[in-house]
Structure prediction request, 118 residues.
Amino acid sequence: MGRHRKLSDDEQYTRHPKALTPEAREEQLINLAVNLAEKQLMEGTASSQVITHYLKLASSKEKLEKQYLEQKVELAQAKTESIYDGRHIEELYENAINAMRSYGAGFNNTVVDNDDDY
Prediction:
């Protein structure tokens, strides 16, 4: 058996097993890219595109746009819930109307004999 040498930080990033799903793989690659960008920024070797990308992320406009998108997602979720709630209410009304109809039909079909009461 051969000796195992200690892996450098760069080598440790490349030794992770591949993710099993496309979504997990995408997340894994994003993490690698961010780690590489961080390393380049710390070493002063980052390209102007990398620097500009992270400067844009820090801008107030970007933060407002991100907040706007988050609120848009929340609104879409609220609308979806409202649609489902509306369907549920319609179902409850329909059940109540059917119950009233069956009660009314049962009441009208019952023969009341008033002669035996007194």
About this structure: Residues 60-108 form one domain. The chain is about 75% helix and 0% strand.
